[in-house]
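Changelog note: in this version the structure field was regenerated for every chain. One regenerated record is shown below for reference.
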Amino acid sequence: MPHVKTVEGQLDAHGLKVAIVASRFNDFIVDKLVGGAVDALTRHGASPDDLTIVKIPGAFEMPLVAKKLAATGKYDGIVCVGAVIRGATPHFDYVAGECAKGLALVSLEFGIPLGFGVLTTENLEQAIERAGSKSGNKGVDAAMAMLETARVCAQI
């Protein structure tokens, strides 16, 4: 195969300013996601002084807050973490869908890497599994996706 230029993101968080938006709803789950994101970023070189945690009521409010943070121009990336757990009403579908759609629009509008770590699970057990037990920690995954994307964008 001929040599083709490849652009890849390095997992190096040195010097990056990152906002972590965390919902307070289901905070016993979300706190573990925040911890995972902070740990992943600092293990990859981020200074704790360059990380800002912004706590908000729930996932529905996340796109607005992410948009306000992106508009400041102070951040190289945003990591969003939350937990929307299905209940007996269709509320889950509206909250999860609007959160995901809104965050995608923020990322595209502002050209800022956004790590999506909002759990959308059928039950509490699945949320616990994704917040640091059987299925890893999705806060870590969201932080790493944002970091790699930030480094790719810097090269384009």
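Spot check on this record: The longest strand covers residues 77-85. The chain is about 45% helix and 20% strand.
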